[in-house]
Amino acid sequence: MKVHSIWLVVLSFWALTAYAGTVSVDLGAADTFGLLGGTISNTGTSKVTGNVGATTTITGFPPGTATGTVYPFPNDPTVETAYTAFENADTQAWSYVSTALPLGTLMTSQTFVGNNAYASATDISTATGINLTFDAQGNPNEVFVILIGGALTVNGAMTFTLEGGAQTSNIFWVVEDAATISVGSSGPITFDGNILAGTSFTMSAGSVGSGVLAGTINGCVYAETANTLAGETNVNGPCASPSGNVPEPGTATLLSMGLLFSLIVYGRRSRKKAA
User: Fold this and answer.
1) pTM of the model
2) The pLDDT of residue 67 is above 60
3) If I label 109, which of 59, 97, 133, 273 is the partner at 20 to 30 A Cα–Cα?
């Protein structure tokens, strides 16, 4: 094999692998819903950005409000379609578990890098005061998938740092069992990312009482069975599916593609001369 042929193979592989293995979660018809599940219960003046829908019953809207539609129930076709899309998105997210990076305990601060899935096979409980950093490395379309093979319990206040163009709409907390955010005595909690719960989601106002702000979720909340909001919970959806998740080519990739094109042209000209 000639030298330029070897480079052709190497650069072809480099250019192609730059676009391989993209992590993505497609919410489909669910992406206009801020709150979606089997049942929905709200005990305070919660505010939801986007639509609200349940496959069986909804209570507490009003006094809860939504910028979109609070769909009638049961068997509303729009809700049924969205719920199926949510289940499909959940299945898609779990398809990354075999190649996921270890999640850790979330008892200490941690950094997540975009275009990756992170997984734990057990229940996860967070510690108060930790900071979670999400780094999109300059590409705002990069997706973060956090897979929890059990229950997720958020215990008190925590902070989030978004770097490199990271977007809350591209963070997916995918929980096999129940997801619970417990305010305790720390006051309102702000939580970044979309929550896809395999069973239920609960926002617990705790000792701060049911009549005040319990917390803000910068994303959507979907649960297979029940969504329960205590006090005032602000759900800042809807979590429209990220578009253009293919990473933008970097300088090295563009250079390799340019060289690849040059070598193809060179090869064609060489063959013409030989003929």
Assistant:
1) 0.79
2) yes
3) 97
